[in-house]
Amino acid sequence: MNVKDALSALSALANEHRLKVFRLLVEAGHEGRSAGEIADALAMPASSLSFHLAHLNRAGLIAQRRESRSLIYSADFARMNALVAFLTENCCSGGVCAPLVKPQRRKSA
Amino acid sequence: MNVKDALSALSALANEHRLKVFRLLVEAGHEGRSAGEIADALAMPASSLSFHLAHLNRAGLIAQRRESRSLIYSADFARMNALVAFLTENCCSGGVCAPLVKPQRRKSA
DNA sequence: CTAATATTTCGATATTACTTGAAATATCAA
DNA sequence: TTGATATTTCAAGTAATATCGAAATATTAG
Predict the structure, then answer these.
(1) Could you tell me the domains of chain A?
(2) Which three-class secondary structure state does DSSP give residue B67?
(3) Is pLDDT larger for residue A4 or for residue A109?
(4) Which residue, among A96, A92, A60, has the nearest Cα to A76 in the 3D structure?
């Protein structure tokens, strides 16, 4: 991941609504959630949500697929991993800021 | 680190100039760099830099100390570590997106 | 105290981001 | 094809961020 991509991903996550959307999609796993389900869960107008989904999608953090009338969004874990790797490699130093690899708090998936 | 702090740190890093400043300070290590040195290195007007330094400082990603007439800024590695931990714990899932702990590309420090 | 240096704060402007109803597009079912 | 459902795109407004010269503040030296 280069600086441009990292900036794009960072600014995609640097918003309350988009961070919520992304976290919801992380919990949803590979299966994902439709735009309608996300809008219901987060109680936001469809057009507002669409704006934020487009932003996350442009940054490569989520994928979109159509299933009949619904558009299903899902988190792109590889991309998120690449962002974490970028931050660890470029914004940490001498091991001082190396990831702790804490035991993961697992949900259902 | 809570969601509010994470958003603050993400938006601080989600800017070309501030990411450059932060990376420069990571390389500078504990010693840090004065505002003037940073302005020279990145060729930006003092008042613009000051705006960005204040942003990073508010987010807790950098510390400020005075040394005679100069204000010295330095990266807060603990805070950066906390951000990476937040992203790993909250925005990854089932180990799919766990940090790889690649060998660090070391600079001088 | 006065001058010089280092940096921030102010203020005005410019740019970018967010919000949301309404209109447009896509899919499916009858 | 018509109607219903799901979602996006458009447009026009509001809000938040960024820019940078000039003025203000802090520190040191003479």
Answers:
(1) 3-90 (1.10.10.10)
(2) strand
(3) A4
(4) A60
Tell me the C-alpha distance between B60 and B73, whole Å: 12
| Chain A residues within an 8 Å CB radius of B90 | 23, 26
B29-39 average pLDDT score: 97
Residue ranges in chain A assigned as alpha helix (H): 3-13, 16-28, 35-42, 46-58, 77-90
Q: Are the C-beta atoms of residues B9 and B61 closer than 8 Å to each other?
A: yes
The residue with tokens 């792109």 is: A76
Residues of A in contact with B26 (CB under 8 A): 90-93
Residues at the strand C interface (Cβ < 7 Å)? A 11, 15, 17, 44-48, 50-52, 55, 66, 68-69; B 34-37, 39, 46-47, 49-51, 53-54, 64, 69-72
B54 touches chain A (CB under 8 A): no
Tokens of A10: 């960072």
CA distance A4 to A6: 5
Residue B43 to residue B38: CA distance in whole angstroms: 8
Band (pLDDT 50/70/90 cuts) for residue A107 is very low
**Token pair for residue B44?**
């930006």
